[in-house]
Amino acid sequence: MPRSFASVGAVLICACAISAAGKPGPLVHRTASAPWVEIDTATGARIERLWPQGAPGAVGSAESDRPSLLCFPAKPRPGDSIAPAVIVCPGGAYGILAVQKEGVEPARWLNGLGVTAFVLRYRLGPRYHHPVELGDARRSLRWVRAHARRLRIDPARVGMLGFSAGGHLTALASVLPDPRPNTGDSVDRFAGVPDLQMLVYPVISMAAPYTHRASRNNLLGRDPSPALPESLSAEKRVGPGAPAAFVVHAEGDPVVAFANSRAYADALRKAGVSVEFLAFNQGGHAFGLAQEKSGEPGQAQLAAWPGQCAKWLRVQGFIPP
């Protein structure tokens, strides 16, 4: 049965501004009464710091040490009093972030569905290892729910969309236990598990034989304890309480083995979790929304996945019919 998503009231909306292209921008003062806000000059998106006073475990104060969300607000569609939200996790083998192709472009596609989107800029290896990345993902979910009234979103409809290594991060947030930190921080009172998960050519396993070696090395280091890769292989951690999933992968993916998604979909079905698995017989890796290749031979099927995902979101009750 499709999951039902209840709505709650809200009052204010997250602001964004258009700015010139470039690196994350300077502080910008919006009005005499408003606080200072940061605008990403490459996208015009408002930057929301997950820990404004500094992230736990940070080893520096550079931009890469300060996990954040880029905010892309959407107006609720007819039939929705407030908008659902999706946190987009770009890929990059846990070593870089493909923010444009696997972050900003999907965020704007989600805006077209009436979904407020947030692009997660999480900390990366080899500077940071697990559990830092998962902590950033959990915090993003808690932060969005904690600020739901201000952002005019529904805290009962907060999903995650992950690409490649970002898919692994999304899967971990979906299937691993969610211990609530006892920090005294009001944000940490909220749940750190998505209401649904969308995975596109995801890394799933950290163990042999089909792990993606670069993602594993960046996340775990080159010599992790023997038990750690198994414990962070999402297909081995699925339980009946996992959120419904939408999974996309091409069988010929030369970077992240198709077996990752197949094993995860099989584990979800075995646990009784609803899953829609789009297995394409043609295509490679890192195709994003695949719209730029839609006219090429054999690529039209890849370009269809966003439309199939939108239908799935409607079936799940996440967005209105």
Could you characterize what this model shows?
The chain has 321 residues and is α/β, with parallel strands linked by helices. The protein has a single domain (61-315), classed as Rossmann fold, CATH 3.40.50. 26% of the residues lie in helices and 19% in strands. The protein is built from 9 helices and 10 strands. The chain has helices at 100-112, 132-146, 148-151, 165-175, 213-220, 227-231, 259-270, 300-303, 305-315, and strands spanning 24-29, 36-40, 46-49, 68-72, 83-89, 116-121, 153-163, 197-200, 245-250, 275-280. The protein has a 10-stranded mixed sheet with strand order 1-2-3-4-6-5-7-8-9-10, sandwiched between helices. β5 (83-89), α1 and β6 (116-121) form a beta-alpha-beta unit. α2 crosses α4. The protein is globular. It starts with 23 loop residues before the first strand and ends in a 6-residue tail after the last helix.
- Tell me the span between the first and last alpha carbons: 16 Å
Structure classification: alpha/beta
Shape: globular
Q: Which radius of gyration do the C-alpha atoms yield?
A: 19 Å
CATH superfamily: Alpha/Beta hydrolase fold, catalytic domain
Main sheet, how many strands, which sense, barrel? 10 strands, mixed
| Fraction of helical residues | 25-40%
What's the mean pLDDT score?
89
CATH secondary-structure class:
Alpha Beta
Q: How do the helices and strands follow one another from N- to C-terminus?
A: EEEEEHEHHEHEHHEHEHH
Main sheet strand line-up: 1-2-3-4-6-5-7-8-9-10
Indicate the CATH topology: Rossmann fold
Number of helices: 9
Note poorly predicted spans.
6-33
Number of domains: 1
How much of the sequence lies in strands comes to 15-25%
**Total beta strands:** 10
